[in-house]
Amino acid sequence: MSLLEIKDATLKFGGVVAVNNLSLSVNEGEVYAIVGPNGAGKSTVFNLISRFYQPFSGSFTFDGQNLLDRAADQVADLGIARTFQNIELFDHATVLQNLLVGRHRHRKTSLVEELLFAPRVRREEMAHRAAVEEVIDFLDLQPYRDKMIAGLPYGVRKVVELGRALASGPRLLLLDEPASGLSVEETQDMRWWIDDIRKQMGITVLMVEHDMGLVSSVCDRVLALADGAKLAEGTPAQVQADPTVIEAYLGAGAV
Amino acid sequence: MRILFKTSYNDDIRLFPDRWTLAVYAALLALAFALPLLLDEFYLGEVTNVLIWAIAGLGLMLLTGQTGQVSLGHAAFLAIGCYTNTILIEAGLPFILAFPLAGMITGVVGAIIAIPALRLHGIYLAIATIALSILADDIIVLLDPWTGGVSGKFPDAITLFGLEIERWTMPVRFYYLVLAVTVICTLFYRNLLRSPLGRAFAAVRDSEVSASAMGVHIARTKGTAFGLSCMITGWAGALMGYYAGAFNNETFSLVISITLLMMIVIGGLGSIHGAFFGAVVVAFLPQVLSILKGAVLGGGVAIPGLETGVFGMILILFILFEPMGIYGRWLKVRTWFELFPFARKDMFRRQKSYLKTERLR
User: Fold this and answer.
1) What pLDDT does B359 receive?
2) Of A53, A117, A129, which is closest to B195 when you measure between CB atoms?
3) Per-residue confidence (pLDDT) for residue B321, from 0 to 100
4) What is the pLDDT of residue B13?
């Protein structure tokens, strides 16, 4: 059944139609990719799901609940976690602290308890830490645990961001270009991780990606987007063979 | 170089990472307790002044260093804390109730003021909070029946558990009172840093977009930071009132706000140590300058604006050569010794940060 359902979503910035009457549905347990040329509106779709943008029209449903009723900071509570195209980590904090922020939606303690560091805060902290350590093990981040983000190389930051999203214990993971700027080996790692995230953790993944190698190796279904509208949807092979997709990427008559 | 062998998650949560650190801070606290035996009353008063500034610095550090919201209005909150405390005590409340309450009221007022102010970012927030500093002066004059207006107020001696505490006649007792408040505020700050809210503060500071994607309510978190910051600042204000012995509408001026902000920048933004190092500079600079001036030019020569000038110059030098403040410099020196001879010159060099997601607002 579908976990995330978007129907007829439209978003306009002034006269520019960023997303045009787009419908898509992501099933529980699948890896779904959105591809498309630059400026097609892929990240905009993510920002709509994260509630950073208010859609002009259309409906957004996650697991039967209306996403449009939620503010941006309440989306995480539903179990939707995301990464950003241009890495949005907390630069002046350690990797561990960044991952722990991912646990924020599980915060139960009150301000007064935290000021006095009541026993319950300590217990909660230990539980958060245990959850975060699992993510650290999963992503092999042990060497970087206490390092500041500001001093980490790009590839590691990318992984830390994935880790932060995983630490929140999501049901749906939004990955905005998980492989951009990564080396061949790092992309390979990312591919296995995405595979494991789906298979071992049972998390549904929705991703935006340009690397068709990665897309065709991990994704069940692909949606091709151009100028904010749906071009084609189907298995990676189907979409890659679709004449309208080829036209959008290469121009008519080029092949 | 010491290597910590951690065996439990608790090792990262507890206040002191290892016995050595615990011993260092215990020694520091013992020294603080023994200080009245080591110093005469004048210098003890100066140290008390440092501690009061440090409390105020902790308050602003929480907001500016931790949450990334610049405030040039904190003199207003010092004033609110100071006046509230005095008015509550005049109304008959005992100090033990009035003092904490004064801080809390300041915090609530701060959180309410924060609601409109925190829609602003960076320099605009700084300018809006300057207005607060300026307004405070007029409001104190307008509220003459309660605040005493231009003629000001003189706080009574404190009575705490049957003990009388007064800054001039009993500097030792006053010093211990200030020390106790300092330790409590520092503990609060430390506790926040190791709990979810403190991390949310840092998250808001570094990237609002991703903080909100992780479930952090930006406005509420900023409001809480503002409230807590004002609470601590309010306590510092109340103590400042006692320290000065008299205060009126001009005591808590914009200059105090600016000094406070400069203090935490010089000390090192985003660290507890920074607030203390900065307070030492701010509180001792006038004394050091006057001693130097006396030695060079002889007493009796007045140079208007000398303090502000020197202070401004120190600030510029720090921003140019040590943006991480005194605490940053201390960390570098310590790392150099710990890693000797392997420390490299560029170890602390700021990496250029990668492109940030275009701001969504």
Assistant:
1) 45
2) A117
3) 84
4) 84
